[in-house]
Amino acid sequence: MNSYTRIMQAIELKPETIPAAPQVLAWAARIARVPVRRYVTEAEAMVESLLTSYWRFQYDLLLVGADNSVEAEALGATLEYPEDDYPYVIGRLGFNDLASLHLPEPTKAGRIPVILKACALLRQQVKNQVPVVGKVTGPMTIAGQLLGLEQLLYLIIDAPAKFQEILAFTARVSTLQGQALLAAGAHGLVLIEPAGSPVVLPAAAFHSYLVPLLDSIFSAYAAAGACIRWLQITGPVGKILPYLQEIPVNLVGLDYVVSPLEAMQLLPGICFIGNVKPYLFVSGPEEKIREEVQALTQLPGQQLILSSGCELPLDARPEYVTAFMAAKRQ
């Protein structure tokens, strides 16, 4: 059985074995000894890094993507590029700039073409042996990158119609980005929405503003053929999990602060991915990683793909990823 089959069986809640898929993006550049700056700006460097890491650790899913500022940069935000770390926004847009914004053309705007090319190259390499999942930034996070999260949140009280208008626009950006990745060869998509976490956005606002947009986004992904439709929101998401029944996702990320048993009760019939503490991949020890993996594999319900609670930190240590994969095989 290959990795693609393992992942799809898990998503369909009919696993013969539990897959393991730590969330590897730019950490792969450290394994390949490629500067992160090259990873996020050159398709060939991204592919070299992701494949080097994949062949070394033999996990069951390949993510393709970069930082959470890709879409914001394509819309006009200015970024700083460290040599060996993720870029970050240093120049945001003002409210007056929003009226002149146009939807980015994925094949031309910013670094989006780099990621599309990397996606196509990865799919050519692995074909249907392992699922290739393209990373998309969610609408709330894109808007926060563009305007600043604090300024964006003020709008919920001061100008809710404007808040809704901005999110409707950035949701269209997320939709187009995902559709372009699918056209480039991705089997599925993960939408990363850290700014949708209850620690940022109250659960009631999440339901009122974000759920209808996420429904539209993931419906478009499904119509475009995405067999993996994964929503990743970090933090204590228990309050919003029941709302995800209104969105056509088939995979939900679980951060380490969420009880998998509680999540399975709140959202039955959905496969989850998580939720080993990401910092354990930095600090260890190996025994603690083994304990967490073994506890997850013993959960009832067969609703889980083993993973880190979110993306692997850039300073994660290879021996702890090895320990994670070995614990899964025991």
Automatic annotation (TrEMBL):
Pfam families: URO-D. GO terms for molecular function: uroporphyrinogen decarboxylase activity. Its EC number is 4.1.1.37. The keyword Transmembrane does not apply. Keywords: Lyase. Residues 25-328 form the Uroporphyrinogen decarboxylase (URO-D) domain. It comes from the Bacteria. The keyword DNA-binding does not apply. One of its GO terms (biological process) is porphyrin-containing compound biosynthetic process. PANTHER family: METHYLCOBAMIDE:COM METHYLTRANSFERASE MTBA (PTHR47099). This is Uroporphyrinogen decarboxylase. It comes from Neomoorella glycerini.
